[in-house]
Amino acid sequence: MLKSLNTAATGMKAQQTNMDVIANNLANVSTTGFKKARAEFEDLLYDNIKEPGSATGANSISPTGVQVGLGVKAGAVQKDFTQGSTRITNAPFDLEISGAGFFPVQTPNGQIAYTRDGAFKKGPDGRLQDKNGNILQPEITIPSTASGVEVGPSGNVQVIYQDNTVPQSIGQVQLVSFVNPAGLKNIGANLFLPSNSSGLPQQGVPGQNGLGMIAQGQLETSNVNIVDEMVNMITAQRAYETNSKAVQAADQMLQAVNGLR
Fold first, then answer.
1. Are 165 and 110 contained in the same domain?
2. Are both 93 and 210 inside the same structural domain?
3. pLDDT over 80 at 39, yes or no
4. What is the 3-state secondary structure of the chain?
């Protein structure tokens, strides 16, 4: 009976983790470039009362054995990197990655991080940076005298000056891919860092080596589907309630045992 109490408690704890993941997805439904996650679970060790295949007689064996599970735990939280919807902004420094890849940016401490959020701005020195001041890498500086900026699908950045109608190239946007993007480490602010699971960053020109293309004047929205997350939330809530009922049932059975004379 004590096993059932602990087993049901692990189920409640697992559903709490599941609910935390779902709540984070819903909270970031409007976050540019956000990728939804899902909790994955695995069963715990088993109490092997009788091993499968153990002898039950002189010439017979147990076909299944008696194995009682001891609960569940959250084994992983998997990121889903499917493409989000497109939001047209017509802002010259808003860039969307249509396909695979990440923008490399340099944080204030000199570390290179990676993001799908292409809402860049022109900093006080003309360099393109994200909303937190992280500098796009390689650096692209927009001249103060430029009257227009064009970013091609392959990431080539050109500017137009008032006295010259011929665009002039000033830089190249590059993207980075990973063998296993789901293994990237989330650090907040729409940024990721490499890990031993993600593999090394592979930098290249958009449109080459499996990298996506660049679309100027638009952004990738979150890939969270509110309807799916609401269904997942209801399922998690009902699973939590069911496990709590199992705790109550085990408690009532223990009360019955304690009441024996």
1. yes
2. yes
3. yes
4. CHHHHHHHHHHHHHHHHHHHHHHHHHHCCCCCCCCCEEEEEEECCEEEEECCCCECCCCCECCCCEEEECCEEEEEEEECCCCCCEEECCCCCEEEEECCCEEEEECCCCCEEEECCCECEECCCCEEECCCCCEECCCCECCCCEEEEEECCCCEEEEEECCEEEEEEEEECCEEECCCHHHCEEEECCEEECCCCCCCCEEECCCCCCCCEEEECEEECCCCCHHHHHHHHHHHHHHHHHHHHHHHHHHHHHHHHHCCC
Q: Is the pTM of this model over 0.85?
A: yes
What does the pLDDT average to over 161-167? Answer: 80
Residue 138 has pLDDT above 80, yes or no: yes
Residue 29: give the domain boundaries: 2-81+224-258
Residues 139 and 120 in one domain: yes
